Amino acid sequence: MGSGFSALAAALVVGARKDYGRQALLPHNAVYVLVGAGLLWFGWFGFNGGSGFSTGNPSILAFTNTLLTPACTLLVWFALDAIRGRRVTAIGAATAIIVGCVGITPAGGFVSPGYAMLLGALVALPCYAVIVWRTRTRVDETLDVLAAHGIAGFTGILFIGFFAQLSWNGAADGLLFGDAGQLGWQALAAVAAPAYAFSVTYVLLRVLGLVMPLRADEREEALGMDVTYHGEEAYASGEGAILVTPEAGMEEERPVADAA
User: Which of 102, 114, 185, 233 is the most buried (most CB within 10 A)?
Assistant: First the structure.
C-alpha cells in the first residue's frame, strides 16, 4: 500500500513524460507482461504462504487464499473490461492478477477462503475505477501502482477489520464476527501508512530535486533512455528504430547501418 502512494508522490513531483496525452504510449509487449504477471502470481504463493513461518494452518490458509482471490479478481476484471470496452484485454488480465495478489496479501492468513473470494471480487471495483480516472488526468503513473498496490492494499487491510475470523486465524475477529475494535485498528493503519508514505516520499524527492535532476532533459527523453544511457536499443528495426551514432552518446560505436 505504501508503494502505491509513494508512486503517486513521485509522479506528481517528476511530472508527465514529454508526449504524455498527445501520443499513444502503449505497453510494448503484451506477451512479456502476461509472462511477468504469471511469474509474480506463482511467486506470491511463497510470499504469502511463507509469511506464516511454518507449514501449519496459517500458511495453508494464506496459500489457498492467494489462489482464490486473484482468480475472482480476474473474473470481475474481465466483466468490467467487457462492459466498458466490449473486449477483454491481456494487459487488463495481468493487472487484475496483481490487484488480487496485493489485495489478499494483508488478509490472506486472517479470512476464510469464502471471504477471500469475496475480497477478490470487491477489490477489482475501486482499483479499476482509479485506473480509468488516472488516464483522464495529467498524472503520468503509467504502471498504475497507485491502483494495483495502493488501493488494493488499502482494501485488503480494511477487509480484515470487517471479515477476520478467529476460527480461521486463531488471532482475532472482525466487525462481522463481533469485534468492532479490530476494524478501528485496521482503519487507522489504512490511513496512517499511505499518509506517511506519500508525504515522506514527496518531501524527499523535493529535497533531492534541489541538488540533482530527477529526470532526463528533453533531448535525452526524446532520443530514448536506451540510446542515451546504454548506446543500444531494445528493438533495432521497425518504425521506432534509430541509428546509434557517436552523436547519440557513443564515442566509438559505429552506426548500425555501417555495422550491417
Answer: 102
